[in-house]
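Hi Y.,

Following your request, here is the sequence exactly as I used it, all 168 residues.
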Amino acid sequence: MQDGRVRAVFFDFGGVIARLDRELLTDFEVRHGLPEGSFLKALYTIPEWQAVEIGEGTEEEWVEAVNRKLHELAGRPLPDVWQERAVMWRTLDQDVVGLARQLAVRYDVGVLSNATPRLESELHDYHKIGGLFKVIVNSSRVGMAKPDTRIYRLAAERIGVEPAACVH
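Below is the corresponding structure, written out as tokens. Let me know if you'd prefer a different format.
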């Protein structure tokens, strides 16, 4: 950003482009007598998530570990969570998508997300918005995750601007 101008804007996927279906998670927790927040805790506070988000583990290993964690929290076996996991990020925030479209007229727009290897197919095949983004930097494919500064530098490099010219 030699001249002080922003040239690229990056969006996160989960919680920004896509809304978390909290009702789905709450329904699962209520149905199975789990404390509030158990589902998210089981998903994202286990070592298997940290492995899958940097490409060192598989999504299957992660979901198996999530199931084990939920069984532990419930004190009994529960149904497999694969279906809930598969659909929990399926609602787009249309305001954010609209903003990305508007910004793409003037700036390079990309995705930078700590995600599983399914991110690209979610954006291209399911949501049909992958073409909106000049680059998609997926932590599970590049072997590093936010907040590691290297992933921000990589995103800037891939979109073709200096890191200081990027907004995340």
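Residues 13 and 113 are 6 Å apart (CA to CA).

Thanks again,
Q.
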